[in-house]
Structures are given as structure tokens and as C-alpha cells.
Amino acid sequence: MRSIGIILKKELKRYFTDVRMLIGIILPGILIFFLYSVMGNFMGNNASSDIKEFSIIVENKPEVLEDIFKAGFEGFEVTYIEEKLTEEEILKKIENQELDLYVSYPKEFLSPSISSIPNVDIYYNSVSDASMTAYTLYTGILNAFEEAQQPNYFDINNRNQKYDLAKEEDITVRIFTMMLPFLLMTFLFSGAMGICSESIAGEKERGTIATLLVTPTKRSHIAIGKVSALGITALASALVSFLGLIASLPKLVGTNLSLSAYNVQTIFMLLVVIILTVLLFTVVLTMVSTFAKSVKEASSLSIPVMILVMLLGATSFMGTTAQTNPALYLIPVYGAIQSLTGILSMTISPLCFAMFILSSIVYIGLGVFGLTKMFNSERIMFNI
Q: In angstroms, what is the C-alpha Rg of the chain?
């Protein structure tokens, strides 16, 4: 038993006196606390800015439902459009997101003499947040009213007819905007991590880094050459993952996607974000690998960075439009996610995109400068 205690004490001392190991143990918890606190505040602030205004056209609305809907929509500003339009014109307005809801009651709705179960037609646009909110509220009020009367008192959208008037292109934009930034950040980081973690730390383990450093080549040139090669390799891996993701996304979401909403400019902007992000990940992970003593330690130290990237990537699920504050695009990784969101939703401003590009170039330059300094440090390169 005494020998077990000696070994336990020795191992614990090694874990809790090694700065590198302490970073790997403590940093993930700090990052999770910080990011989830920030994200919680962000979501709480956004909750107060939810959509409160709706525009609705109601045809043949029974007077008995007036007070019910007034109470149900309390706290919301509902504008009932009285303009005389044909059904085709109304549906076109919903399709173009100029109108939130079109409700059509049968003329003899709730009449005791009606022979069949009446149907209420409610047309909406699932891509529009206002339309979906209005649809959810309206159907919820109707269902509650029906339950208060009797089951099967009437039906809602029970016919074989399309009530969701969202365009195929708009559906594609919404799906891509919500899913691609997170998935793309994950693939980009995973590809770079798999390559970079082994780069310098692996050479330290094999003892080949010492041979390379004693050559007449400047250490700064070695650092730049290595990070450039790693960046190209990681970029190739990321592009393959990106193409595979695009090809598999229709099966993943279970719907036909139309890419007609995007053009060559969109693809070019996406490539710019991908290239700059991969280079940033490569520089950061190469610095981690240079700092580490072994490949195992490099992988361990990369985990907190991975958690940070994934948590920031999850912010893409909070909205389908990009942030309009240019200062947010100066934040590493988050700026890339917002740029992807803005490009895919076609809501990014040229100023915000320019801020992201310039800040990314600066961060990559600072990272390369820091890496050359690390290569010039005997203590770091030879684990003294």
C-alpha cells in the first residue's frame, strides 16, 4: 500500500507542477465558463428584440373569434390588411415576405347547419421569422379554441395543398446559413489539428528538429517554410471536406436544395474566408506544437482551442443574418463565423468583410512573427 501512495504522490506532483499540463487541465473549464456566460448574455439580449409585429390578411373571420385573438396576440402589434387583393396576389406577397400570414375561413364556419368538418386555410412562409412566429401563434390559438369546444370541431390545413410558400432558394439559404458556418469551422480546425499537432512536436520526439536547426538556414525561414507547407496541406484537406459537405447536405437535411441563389462572387468570398481561417488555425496550432514536448502533449494542448472554436461556431445557430457591428469582425474565429453567415445569407456589408480580411491578415502575421521567435528560443525548441 505504501508503494501505491508513493507512486500516486509522484504522479500527482508531476501533473500539478508541469505548467503545460496545468494549462490543459484548467483552460477548458475557464473557456467554457467564459464563452457560455457571454453567449448566455447575448441570447438574453436578443430575446428582448424578438419579432413583435405581424401583417395578416384574414378572409371571412368569424366575429366570435375577435376577442380570443385579441387576447392571444396581447403584447404583439398585429396589422390586419384590408386591401382588396386576389388570392394569387396575396400568396405572392407571402412568398416574397411582404406579408406574414393569410388566413381563409369558409363562409359557413362554425355554422350548426354545415354538413362537413370545416377547414381553415393558413398560408405562411417558413423562411421568414415573422411569418413562422405568426403562424405558430395563430394555429396555437385556434387549436386551444377547438379544444375548448370539442375535438375535430374544425381542421387546419388538412387538404393536400402547399401552405408553406417559401421559395426553394430561400430554404437553401436558411439551411446553409444555420448549418454551414459551424460545420465548416469544425472541419477546418480538425483538418489543421490533425496535421499541425504532429509537425514540430513530432520532430522533437524523433530528434530531427535539432539537425534541422543547426543547418545554415535561418530559423525564421524554417518557421515560415513549415507553416506555409502546413497551411497548404490543411487547406487542401479543408477544401475536400467542404466539397464533401456540400455534396452530402441535401441528403443530410432531407430536402432538395437549390444553389441558384449563389453566384461566383459568393463562392469567391467563401474561399477567401476559408483560406484565411485555415491559415490562422495553422499558425496557432503550429505554435502549440512548437511549445509542446511531444505529439501527445500538443494534441492535449490543442483541445482547449478546439473547444473555443466549436463554441464560437455554435453561435451561427442563433440567427440567420450577420451582425452589423464592424468591430465584431475583428474577433478571431467569431469574425470568420459572422462573415460566413453574412455571405451565405447575403446580408454581409463590404465594410464588415473588409474588417475581417484585414484583421485576419494581421493575426496571421503576428502568429508567424511569434512562431519565428519561438524557433529562436533554445529553451522552447530543445525543451530546456
A: 29
Grid-cell match 525564421, residue found = 220
Determine, yes or no, domain membership for 16: no
Q: Are residues 197 and 284 in the same domain?
A: yes
Residue 198: inside a domain, yes or no?
yes
Residue 373 to residue 367: CA distance in whole angstroms = 10
Q: Which three cell numbers stand for residue 154?
A: 374544425
The mean pLDDT values, 10 residues at a time, for the chain of 384 residues are 66 63 64 60 49 85 82 84 85 89 83 70 87 88 78 70 79 78 85 83 80 79 84 81 70 59 82 91 90 83 83 76 84 90 86 94 92 84 71
The DSSP symbol for 48 reads T
Q: Are residues 220 and 76 in the same domain?
A: no
Those residues whose C-beta lies under 8 Å from the C-beta of residue 330, and which sit 6 or more positions away, are 355, 356, 359
User: Residue 245: which domain range?
Assistant: 169-381
Torsion of CA 176, 364, 231, 327, to 10 degrees: 0
250 inside domain: yes
Nearest CA-CA partner of 337 in 362, 311, 361: 311
The alpha helices in 51-162, defined as continuous H runs, are: 66-72, 87-95, 129-149
CB-CB contact of 155 with 149 (8 Å) = no
In degrees rounded to 5, what are phi and psi of residue 78?
-105, 125
The DSSP secondary structure of 151-180, one letter per residue, reads TTSSEES-SSS--B---HHHHHHHHHHHHH
CA distance readout (Å), 89 to 55, 86, 92: 15, 5, 5
CA angle (238, 243, 247) in 5-degree steps: 145
What is the spatial distance between Cα 269 and Cα 338, in angstroms, rounded to a whole number? 13
Task: Name the DSSP class of 214.
Answer: T
- Whole-angstrom Cα distance, residue 110 to residue 118? 8
Looking at 102, 134, 166, which one is the last position of a domain? Answer: 166
Burial 102-116 (b: 16+ CB within 10 A, else e): bbbbbeebeeeeeee
Per the structure, how many domains does the chain have? 2
Rounded to 5 degrees, φ, ψ at 317 are: -80, -10
Whole-number Cα distances in Å, 167 to 104, 261, 352:
21, 10, 28
